[in-house]
Amino acid sequence: MAQRKRSSGTVGGKGAKSGSRDELPGGRSQRQLRVGEELRHILSDVLRNGHFRDPDLADLVVTVTEVRVSPDLKAATAFVMPLAGKDAPKIIAGLNRATSYIRMEAVKQIDLRVAPQFSFKLDHSFDEAARVTKLLQQPAVQADLEKTPESEE
Question: Where are the beta strands (DSSP E) in 40-116?
């Protein structure tokens, strides 16, 4: 009987690391990104239609900006932004208290072997974008941006 040569398990030839075949530059796999985006849509629906008993979540209006999923898909961190940023710490605390209800509702809509444990965090990316925009509008930065490569010689 002829023996088969065992594959090393790497994809991509020279320099490929084991387990990195689907990994994207951000460190997350295509599957993590796909599942995260699907969970983002599902969480948006659950939070919009949710019937929460928690007074901190009454009349809840939030935007789910991103869901980051762990490599084993057992944990998911949802980044949310309350409308106008009002009472953000109370809303985040309320959402973290309601994770079992949210998980139960999300399980009804997604086909995964194991339903992820959710945690909620405030999304600071809008604040960061505003800070960068403000920096770019400063006169000193504008002057640097308007310089042409010919004028630097």
Answer: 62-69, 75-82
Per-run averaged pLDDT (10 residues), the chain, 153 residues: 42 41 64 91 89 84 91 92 82 92 89 88 80 82 73 54
The dihedral over CA atoms of 74, 57, 45, 85, expressed in degrees to the nearest 10, equals -90
Going by the DSSP 8-state scheme, the letter that residue 83 receives in this structure is G
Task: Return the domain boundaries, the chain.
Answer: 30-147
Across-strand partners of 63? 81
> Quick count: other Cβ atoms within 10 Å of Cβ 106?
21
Considering the domain delimited by 30-147, tell me its CATH architecture.
2-Layer Sandwich (3.30)
How many C-beta neighbours within 10 Å does residue 39 have?
A: 26
DSSP classification of residue 113: S
Is there a contact between 138 and 94 (Cβ–Cβ < 8 Å)? no
Write down the H helix ranges in the chain. 30-49, 88-97, 99-107, 125-136, 139-146
Look-up of token digits 């992820």: 116
> pTM for the whole thing?
0.69
